[in-house]
Specification:
98 residues, mainly alpha
Length: 98
């Protein structure tokens, strides 16, 4: 395998950092990651929805322009964030599910 093939398969570090940062924010806003300042967790559905919308927009606008590793990273982040968002929405709407 040539070096150029390896480079093509690695996600751009800036892209990967951005996706990780957004996924962490989603986890924070959905109460799954403690606030780094206070150590407490809380749910902010509006902020979480904004993060999810941003990643979905990025996915739509970047179709065909990502390498396989970037596409996989973004798809994985979106899949997990959507699942978590749905779980939190369900528990907020019907607290007996939490």
């Amino acid at each position: 395998m040539s070096d150029s093939t390896i480079e093509e398969e690695a996600p751009d570090p800036r892209f990967a950092s951005f996706v990780y940062f957004q996924a962490q924010n989603g986890g924070l806003f959905l109460g799954r990651i403690p606030n780094p300042t206070t150590g407490e967790t809380g749910v902010n559905i509006k902020a979480a929805r904004s993060v999810l919308d941003s990643l979905e927009m990025l996915s739509d606008k970047s179709k065909g322009n990502l390498n396989k590793a970037e596409d996989k990273l973004l798809s994985f982040a979106l899949e997990n964030l959507r699942k978590l968002f749905d779980e939190v929405i369900t528990s907020v709407e019907d607290p007996s599910h939490s």
